[in-house]
Amino acid sequence: MPVSYSPYISALSIYPVKGMRGTTVRRAAAEFCGLQGDRRWMVVDGDGVFLTQRELPVLARIVPTTTKVGLMLECDGDEIHVGRPPEISCDVTVHVWRDDVPAQDAGDTVAEWLSQRLKRRVRLVYLHDPDARRTDPHYAPTRPPVSFADGFPLLITTTASLEDLNRRMDTPVPMTRFRPNITVSGCSAWSEDTWRLIRIGTCLIRVVKPCARCAVTLVDQTTGGKPTPREPLRTLATFRRARRGVMFGQNAIILRKGTIRVNDPVELLEIAPAALDS
Length: 278
What we know:
Layout: E1 8-14, E2 17-18, E3 23-25, E4 27-31, E5 34-35, E6 41-44, E7 63-66, E8 70-75, E9 78-83, E10 91-96, E11 99-105, H1 108-118, E12 123-126, E13 154-158, H2 159-167, E14 182-185, E15 195-200, E16 203-212, H3 233-239, E17 241-242, E18 245-256, E19 258-261, E20 267-271
Parallel strand pairs: 2-6, 13-14
Antiparallel strand pairs: 1-3, 1-14, 4-5, 4-19, 6-12, 7-8, 8-9, 10-11, 11-12, 13-18, 15-16, 15-20, 16-18, 17-18
């Protein structure tokens, strides 16, 4: 039986290029691999290994915008337009954590533009076929596809949990530090720990595991700086530590596709006792 509850979507975000600044949207198509347009592009080093704000915090200063033909990147008033590589173009193999993934290189012009701003030799690649990469079967036995996201198609956070965290810190941080896809309001702090199956419109979502947080949360998503060193990880560690790290937000997979919108109600279909270790 559905659980009576009153959460709703207060924000939706996509990240066209993994590691670059996010974009808020009012509606998004939820595909099996994630929200449409989310993390289909990625910056890699000369060996094809993915790069994020963990290594290059300055990525937060680059603003990507999806266009009809590809992508526009803007940084400090300078911009470049990038065409989506042809699907039939020669594949390159890129590396995202333990996965080797076929992708398409976006060309020398944007590679040079990015290398100058990041002060490191890099390439930009595009993922035409998200089916080429799959989620961890330990958490998602059906192994749905996933884009260049760290491991799962969706990340869900709640405003109440952020408010509880910020009450414990001298300097509050915005939700952008955690780079969620779906932000939910209208629920109590940390109630997302109990969610297992939710419905948003026609979209059915399975919540599979808490999200372990890393040094990206230290990065201001506008400046690329680290204004409060060690925060929010230091405070999270005092009350959200688990075997695999400190937790904020929930990773999820999409069981049934659909369109989701800001202000859509979030219906809880299954809940279970909270467990940070999984």
